[in-house]
Amino acid sequence: MEPKIAQKGPFAVKLEAGKNYHWCACGRSQNQPFCDGSHKVTEFTPLSFNAEKSGEAHLCGCKHTKNPPYCDGSHAKL
Ligand code: FES
Question: Does 72 sit in the ligand 1 pocket, CB within 6 Å?
Fold first, then answer.
């Protein structure tokens, strides 16, 4: 099963150092780039991660990054 492409580009979000986030891996969440529980009907599970530093981060919206939860430029090839 392929993840749904939520957006062909990253979501710029403000993260807080040390805080835990759940990045949507299935692409179905209505609360991009974060999980809203929509993966339950898929084989995907969200990626739990702790922000290393406070500030803006670019989280993958296409769900095809090789470096989740971060955008690695893979969206340009979709
Ligand atoms: S948005 Fe997915 S790799 Fe850039």
Answer: yes
The verdict on residue 59 lying in a domain is: yes
Residue 67 structural domain: 11-77
The total number of structural domains in the chain stands at 1
| Domain contains 38 | yes
Q: How far is Cα 46 from Cα 35, in angstroms, rounded to an integer? A: 6
DSSP E strands in the chain: the ranges are 11-15, 20-23, 47-50, 55-59
DSSP class of residue 70 equals B
Residue whose CA is at the smallest distance from ligand 1 atom 4:
71
Per the domain annotation, does 6 fall within a domain?
Answer: no
Q: Which atom of ligand 1 is nearest to the CA of 10?
A: 1
pTM above 0.90, yes or no: yes
Cβ(3) – ligand 1 distance below 6 Å:
no
Residue-wise pLDDT for 14-61, tens only, equals 999 999 999 999 999 999 999 999 999 999 999 999 999 999 999 999
